[in-house]
C-alpha cells in the first residue's frame, strides 16, 4: 500500500492485498502499472496482477483474470463485450448461492445476466439485483474512496483464562506494543499519547493514558510507557485480568527525528520491520516476548494462553 500511495493519494484498499487507484488525468496508465509491478517485485519479491478499466468493477474482473502476474486493460467502451462471455460467477457479488439461483433462471454468463431486464433481477434479488444488472453491463459509478484519516492505532487481546501472571502480561503488552509500533511506522506516523486498556474478570474495563512531549513510533518507548501504566494499575488493583490492550493516539506525521527515539532503536526497528514484511510478523521476536513463544510451543501451555501468532488471534485492528 505504501508503494501504491507513492503513485496516487486516491487509493482505496480492498482487503489485505488489493486496492483501487483513481488514475484520472494520468497519461500512460499502462506504463505506470508496469512500473509499479516491477517495483513491488524488486522491493518485496511479490507478484501482482493489475486490471485497468474505466470503472472499479471491470478493473476488478480484469485484475482477477490477469492473475497471478499479469496486466489486462479494458478499452473504454468495450466493458460490456469484455464481460459478456465470462462465467457469471466472475462478477463480484455473484457467490455460490447467487450463481445457483441464476443458473435456475438459465443464466450462466455475465452477458446473459446483462440481457435480463433489471426488474427481473430486482424481483429475484432485491436492490442487489439492480446492482448486478449495472455491473453486468459494465456500469459502475462508485468512486475510489480513500480511507478516513486514522485517529488512533491499537491492539488488544482477550485471554482464554483470566490471569494475574505479571510476566505473561508484560510479555503480551510487549508483543502488542511491537504491533502498534510497526503499524505507526508503516503509516509514517508518530504518537504523543499512549493508553493502556484492561478488562477484569468481572468485566469492569479501565483505560489509563499518558500524554507526553515530543512524539514516537519506537516499540521500546511505547512498551515502556504502557508498562509503567500497567505497573501502577496492578499495584492499585489485584483483580484477575481478562483483556489487555494498548493504543497510540494524538498522531502526527513522522517527519522529524525525535529525542525519544535513539538512533540504534530506529535502526533495529527498521531491520525488524524489513524481516517481518518479508517473512511474517512472528519470524523475529524481542527477548521480552520469548515467554509467549515458550508457552505456545510447550506441551502444556498455561490455560490462559491464546497464541498471538495465529492469524485469527483476537486482538483488534486500528481504530
Tell me the layout of helices and strands.
Elements (H helix, E strand, L loop, with lengths): L1 H6 L3 E3 L5 E3 L7 H16 L5 E3 L3 H10 L5 E3 L5 H6 L11 H9 L5 H6 L2 H8 L1 H10 L15 E12 L2 H21 L2 E12 L4 E12 L2 H18 L4 E13 L9 H17 L10 H8 L22
Parallel strand pairs: 3-4
Antiparallel strand pairs: 1-2, 5-8, 6-7, 6-8
Helix pairs in contact: 7-8, 9-10
Summarize the structure.
By secondary structure, the chain is α+β, with helices and mostly antiparallel strands. The chain is built from 12 helices and 8 strands.
Indicate the overall shape: elongated
- Fraction in helix: 40-55%
**Euclidean distance between termini CA atoms:** 18 Å
Strand content: 15-25%
Order the strands across the largest sheet as they lie in space: 5-8-6-7
- Individual helix count: 12
Order of helices and strands: HEEHEHEHHHHHEHEEHEHH
CATH superfamily of the largest domain: DNA polymerase, Y-family, little finger domain
Q: How many individual domains?
A: 2
- The protein's oligomeric status is single chain
Overall SS class: alpha+beta
On the 0 to 100 scale, the average pLDDT is 86
Based on the structure given, which CATH architecture of the largest domain is correct?
2-Layer Sandwich
Radius of gyration: 24 Å
CATH names the topology of the largest domain as: Dna Ligase, domain 1
Low-pLDDT parts are 296-319
CATH class of the largest domain reads Alpha Beta
Note the main sheet.
4 strands, antiparallel
